Amino acid sequence: MKTRIVVVGNGMVGHKFIDNLVNHADRDQYQVITFSEESRLAYDRVQLSKYFSGSTAEDLMLTSTDYYNEKGVQYILGDKVIDLDFDNKEIITASGRREAYDKLILATGSFPFVPPIPGNNGEHCLVYRTIEDLERITASAQQSKIGVVVGGGLLGLEAAAALKAAGLETHVVEFAPRLMAVQLDEGGGKLLRRKIESIGVRVHTQKATNEIVAGAESRYRMNFADGSHLETDMILFSAGIRPQDELARKCGIGLGERGGIVVDNNCQTTVKDVYAIGECALWNNRIYGLVAPGYQMAKVALSHITGGKDQFTGADMSTKLKLLGVDVASVGDAHGNTPGSLSYTYSNDVEEVYKRIIVSADNKKLLGAVLVGDVEAYGTLQSMCVNGMDLPEDPNCLILPNVDGGGAAIGVDALPESACVCSCYDVSKGAICCAVQDGARTMGDIKAITKASTGCGGCSALAKQVMDSELKKIGVEVSNHICEHFPHSRRELADIVRIKQIKTFDDLLDQHGRGLGCDICKPAVGSILAGFWNEYVLDKKHIGLQDTNDIFLGNMQKDGSYSIVPRIAGGEITPEKLIVLGEVAKEYKLYTKITGGQRIDLFGAQLHQLPAIWKKLVDAGFETGHAYGKSLRTVKSCVGSTWCRYGVLDSVGMAVMLENRYKGVRSPHKMKFAVSGCTRECAEAQSKDFGVIATETGWSLYVCGNGGMRPRHADLFATGLDDVTLIKYIDRVMMFYIRTADRLQRTSVWMENMEGGLDYLKKVVIDDKLGLCEELEAQMNYNISQYQCEWKTTVENEELQKRFKHFINSEARDDNLAYVVEREQIRPATALERKSNNIQLVELVD
Amino acid sequence: MSEKPWISVCEINDLLPDTGVCALVNKQQVAIFRSRRLNEVFAVSNYDPVGEANVLSRGMIGSIGDEVVVASPLYKEHYNLRTGECLEKPGYKIPVFPVRLDDGLVQIQA
């Protein structure tokens, strides 16, 4: 008989428990059923605010019905568990359903606390917790001009960001004397306030609301205890959370004085075989309102059920996040409450950075930290604090800028195996080391295997240090050399080429390499040279560097024939040009197919036919589509505001412009773009290297997405952009990619392996942290100015066409090519068909 | 055994440095490469036995260790231009042909 586990609540923590269980070695011994009063399975509440920047409810999902079905997890949505029968070990739902359990997990979470203020139940008085709440907020915001958030804590500021994004005049009302009073000290709170006010959010501290009454100019008027008042159209309460312990209370499970289900170190409640985890659980008289401790509890409860030894002994409440565009982090004892503790403070009003560390009385250990404006040191500080490591000789270096290269880095070797590197996914140093021993070699591998750094990303630098150190230990030379011919990475080669203005592979090999080169370094260097100087790729100096497809400006197919893809910018084509494509295909008996990038591919052209075919295409006004190059492929678009009833901006116009701007730019790997005319996103821009989506306030730019083998949603890079800024940002990101990516590294993997990730890229491209932006733009402009249609150049020069022949000494054609007809078009004959006498082969055109 | 005749197939200048061409010699397809650095010409069969297509002349040449190789343009196996051996798949070996330069002409025995 399988042990039957019932999980009440399918929030983040309930789901985590289930996910751990169905991936546990003993999973076959358990059967699991989960209940949720919400209408959907678990979603990411931590990322709720993304809903307002374009994410849909679906994007926020942490699991799916398919996943649960596949793993044999039974789920009941929209039916609340309202009673427990401990004698018969059954749960009872609102609809009267009874389910037996062997082990019961209460993961009922929390609910938002609404202060008992008269008038707090108005139609436009809302809370911020579920997707339904977000829908209500959106609806209310559409009928409001001013919005107030009650509560200046972490969630309150997130809610304020949502109102701001909805275009409301936004106020934050806080009872305490400063913002984020739990996490920040006075100095940090002050800077945070200044930064938030500078973007137009009005902050009112030390305000207690007495009542909410009808307003004179707005819908409501809030009267404060100090006699002042504020008028507003909507009010969002975000004044903390309370454990959802109603069910436990009703059934007599032990609760704390001020609520919360009491649990021990195994997460067991006072009732046998009943566990509580997450925000409903009270451990050591404390509720943990963050997701990471909830995940730890999920792990502990499962461990206890499956006979493991994990214990919950409190959790680190360190936090790092971005609120209203401001980076904020808090580590350990941020207030210096430890008796005798000392502190170091760095405060810079010009750059708006505040950092303070709290150290022990003997100046040996780090106890806590507050960071506002610059949180790069978070990973180091957090792990130093949690793992009780010794402070460096001069603790100043942890917060001062650019001391010894700015490295607040600590020797990762000093970390114990059990040290938690990623607190989002509870990944220890040991787990990362194991992954390395099992073959992981890149941060991409580490992320895929351990999930480390895939949550908030705050630990990515630390995780990489751990990985590098372990690689070194097991004797894997962390060589980033591109191949045996150059003792350099692609990035280093790109720097050399750029700085020393090297124009040919031979010069580079003479000065920095050895041997003859190979099919790894030659195309890579070819791409670098083209990325900076953009010369004709079939020039004598460069021709030997061109890979299979580039060397004949076509895409070689399995039998040695080629496919031809003319550029159809933005997927927009005239009837006249369509007819030309049809006529050419017909004349040369080519197989035609519409590509995924909104253009037309013509297959089965023989090498010697390419110049003649292209002559016709060029004469008709076509250009090469660079389908053969590691370069911009297409800019896909939806039809946009010119035709579509829902279109907001002219997506086709933008797509055509972008495609014409970046056509022919060589990069480390191919690049795909898309432009959608509204947030319905019909062009699927979020799966592209560069995705552009029209909104009411301008263009949103997404970067580093990918479809294909390992899909990755693009990251939202910037919003509300005009045409000029959009192009500027794309220029910079693309040239930075060309400069720094590895060989054949798509933008998605480039981003995943970038230390500091999206935030870092934003700093480089938007804030110009490296002072490179002007140079990147100039370089891109130069590259673009050198554009030529390689096929136009080729068909206009007899000499260049000589190579396009199968035999140098004969007009015969390759007798190995053979085609049959299928669905009215040609295709290569199979080996069997070639041998058969009865198969009708297609007569080839000369 | 009588030696096969040397057959002229093209001028050396028809071969761009570090690229290949294909010649038809006694009904055989011969891939010919010119290495600028070694100042040397190589001739092997044009047939790629893994991809089963006549394409090797369109591959990229280079070195791996001390060997001079061509990489198949289809699936990138490397063939030693002096011995014809496939570096990745020892079972595969392509024919190698004698080649020489005679007064600017590339000549093959095949």
- CATH architecture designation of chain B: 3-layer Sandwich
Q: How big a fraction of the residues of chain B is strand?
A: over 45%
Q: Could you say which structural class the secondary elements and strand pairing of chain A correspond to? A: alpha/beta
**Poorly predicted tracts of residues of chain A:** 403-409
Q: Quickly name the level 1 CATH class of chain B.
A: Mainly Beta
**Per CATH, which architecture of the largest domain in chain A?**
3-Layer(bba) Sandwich
Q: Assign a percent range to the helix content of chain A.
A: 25-40%
Number of strands of chain A: 39
Compose a concise summary of this entry.
With 846 residues, chain A is of the alpha/beta class. The mean pLDDT of chain B is 93.
Structural write-up:
- The complex is a heterodimer of chains A (846) and B (110).
- Helix content of chain A is 29%, strand content 21%.
- By secondary structure, chain A is an alpha/beta fold.
- Chain A has a five-stranded parallel beta sheet. A five-stranded parallel beta sheet of chain A has the order 9-16-10-11-12.
- In chain A, helix 13 (490-499) packs across helix 15.
- In chain A, 47% of the residues are buried.
- Mean pLDDT of chain A is 91; it is low at 403-409.
- Chain B has a single domain, classed as Rieske [2Fe-2S] iron-sulphur domain (Rieske Iron-sulfur Protein).
- Chain B contains no helices and eleven strands.
- Chain B has strands at residues 7-11, 20-25, 28-35, 40-45, 47-48, 53-54, 60-64, 67-71, 78-80, 99-102, 105-108.
- In chain B, a hairpin with a 2-residue loop joins strand 2 (20-25) and strand 3.
- Chain B has a three-stranded antiparallel beta sheet with strand order 1-11-10, with no helix packed on it. A three-stranded antiparallel beta sheet of chain B has the order 2-3-4, with no helix packed on it.
- Chain B has 110 residues and is an all-beta fold.
- The chains are: A alpha/beta (846), B mainly beta (110).
- At the A-B interface, helix 15 of A face strand 2, strand 3, strand 6, strand 7 and strand 8 of B.
